[in-house]
DNA sequence: GAATTATATATAGATAAACTATATATGTCA
DNA sequence: TGACATATATAGTTTATCTATATATAATTC
């Protein structure tokens, strides 16, 4: 993840689940997609992603299925469950609240999140 | 810290150093001030703050001195060093970059931080 | 007067997130 | 043939923050 490594921790589950909201994806694809959508800011490591996905699967937030690729190893696709959708909404709400509170401390004054 | 506990991790050093930018403070005061400035969002625990402050002191980002209080125990004030100011600026920059990238993933499109 | 709460600092131990390093396996390209 | 991109996985480490606990004084409440 580089950047600062203290600032950056947390919120990976949110980002990964957000990706799955747009459609089923396999692990490697998520790493690439996250890099692309963040304009090369997030470089999620495979060693971080797979344990995270297994954890989300264990909690029932995502489900997984194998699918043959046209070439190479079969891919393990992940799908956001109904429960996952609910949890994602909560996590987004939580992130907005948090980012907003940080902004209040850093810049002073108010912050109505949405903006 | 409550909230989500996965989203919230990281960035405490940034917030604490930001408080000290406005003037020297003692530990207990920082907990209260952080609560106030974040509109009751951040409830930093003493058991989290003091080890954090000792760590910042060890790195030379803050310096500390005792001062008698009019009543009660003597207070240990913390001061942001010159190096601390530099690191704070870097951390703020880093936070902006990070929060901006999260927004890109969550809401799509661009994000020029400052707004 | 005794008990509780607020002020104030500190450490030990637990938990969890993300990292590095490593392993495996296939396809492509120089 | 060797390097690199694709693709998944686990073990072990590091670090942030938490809970729990300890200490001590002042103010408040019963």
Q: Could you explain the architecture of this structure?
A:
2 copies of one chain form a homodimer. With about 120 residues, the first copy, chain A, is α+β, with helices and mostly antiparallel strands. Chain A has 4 helices and 3 strands. Chain A has helices at about 10-20, 25-35, 45-60, 80-105; strands spanning about 25, 60-65, 75-80. In chain A, strand 2 and strand 3 form a beta hairpin. The longest helix of chain A has 26 residues, at about 80-105. Chains A and B meet through helix 1 and helix 4 of A and helix 1 and helix 4 of B. The first copy, chain A, binds a DNA duplex (30 and 30 nucleotides) through helix 2 and helix 3.
What features would you highlight for this structure?
homodimer, 115 residues, alpha+beta, three-stranded antiparallel beta sheet, 4 helices, DNA-binding
Summarize this structure briefly.
The structure is a homodimer of 115-residue chains. The first copy, chain A, is an alpha+beta fold.
Oligomer: homodimer
Rg estimate of chain A, integer Å: 16 Å
What is the strand tally of chain A? 3
Hey, roughly how much beta strand do the residues of chain A contain?
Answer: 5-15%
Please give the alpha-carbon distance between the first and last residues of chain A.
26 Å
Please work out how many helical segments of chain A DSSP would assign: 4
Helix content of chain A: 40-55%
Secondary structure class of chain A reads: alpha+beta
Low-confidence stretches of chain A: none
| H-E string of chain A | HEHHEEH
Task: Give the averaged pLDDT of chain A, no decimals.
Answer: 88
Note the main sheet of chain A. 3 strands, antiparallel
């Amino acid at each position: 993840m580089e950047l600062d490594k203290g600032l950056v921790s947390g919120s990976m589950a949110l980002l990964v689940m957000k990706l799955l909201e747009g459609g089923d994806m396999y692990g490697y694809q998520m790493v690439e997609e996250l890099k692309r959508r963040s304009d090369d800011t997030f470089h999620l490591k495979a060693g971080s992603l797979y344990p995270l996905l297994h954890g989300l699967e264990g909690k029932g937030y995502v489900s997984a299925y194998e699918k043959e690729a046209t070439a190479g190893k079969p891919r393990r696709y992940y799908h956001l469950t109904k429960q996952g959708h609910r949890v994602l909404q909560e996590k987004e709400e939580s992130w907005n609240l948090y980012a907003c509170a940080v902004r209040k401390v850093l810049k002073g004054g108010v912050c109505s999140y949405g903006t």
